[in-house]
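Running this now, will post back.
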Amino acid sequence: MKTVLFLGHSNNDVDHFLPLMVKLEKKDDLKPLLFCIPSRNILLVNKVHQLWIKDCSIYTVSANSVILNSIFQNILFTFFSLLESAYIKIANLAIRANFSIERNCLIFIRKLFGAIKLTVHILLNHSLNGKDCVHSLEKFFKDNSVACVVCDSGFISCYENEQQLVLKIRHIIIRFANARKIPIVMMNHGVSPKYEEDSSLSKSINRDKYIQPDVIIFSFEKEVSKKPYIGKNTKILILGDLRLDVHWIRSLEESAQKLPEYHSISTREKVILYLVCKPAWINDYGLLNSIHADIYNVVKKIEGLTLWIKLHPRYPFAFPLRNYTGGQVRIFGNEVDTNMLLPKSDIVISSYSGVLVHPMLMRRSAIFYDKIRAVTGISIKFIFDDTDCVEKVANPHDLEKTCRMILKRKSPNFDGLEHFYKKFISGGIGMDQSISGSYEKELLSLMQL
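Update: finished.
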């Protein structure tokens, strides 16, 4: 039996790998294996992810059990894991705190733990190198008959120069697989809300510095752009966003309802769900904070509204927690899956997140708050520009007006949903077809199964 090794180093990775892993688990001659970086306990904090992995009997392995060889490294990692667990728990307590004094104290403690964790992280990172891992990786790959490695798209240097532990581990694995001609498949991290009109690959980029995958998969054609890690022999596929497969979304929502936490999340009032984002290309925190404030002000102005804030899984503390306390606001971190919140929301708002597509596909009301582009004047395109399936506003006045309109039961026009889905989300197939099926077909072809 051959193994497809999925390298997960963040909550986002598991989000996008899970539909394909569930699909592959049904194969008799193939098994998906989730390689948890740095460890299973740190990676798998999302309750819905845990439920699916358990119910589908998907194998998982902690990276530390494979690549750490010395007693010193294992002691450091044990300490690091304890600090990380405490860090996450304190962070979640801070997120749930209703009073600013309590929250500020917790944030201070979190920062203290973060500083200690960073010190241990640096020591552990410097003690780890790819050459020391070769023997253990040889055994691991052989014992599991690894035939393919799947990871998220990104820069993977041919040289060992990473400063972050999770990236260093991830890159060690990929370099090891690449040196042994084991196929590497890169998947995009969900559909990108913005894109460039010119998606042609630049000929002047020095690709030799980067590991070039055998296959790279995008959601839509314009997403390809000028990625320097796309090699001359890399096969580029447009297969869509696995996470936004309509059949998968319905399955996720059904599974979320099995969790006790789902039933504890309730309110008698109307709910605005705000999906917080932190675009990598925007460093103007004043602008980002003004977006948070605009959405919060809508809730304060319209009677009978509650604001649910879903923090970004990678940047939960890019959001100014201390400014948002009280009964009208509830904040959710990584342990709560978005699928536990979306079915209970009356309006979903985001200024960037691709998750905004989710309520659109379920024919729920969504607002794209386009303030970033309106304020900066940046010349970019968004996938939401040419569809009426989502409301689009760019200032606080129109945001409030549109929320009031939606609450009066005026639903968006979903006539163009199928066209939008095919163009940006699914790689050209209809909503009644399976995106994960397209991925499965390509993987099997790559491994000659």
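The mean pLDDT is 86. More later if anyone needs it.
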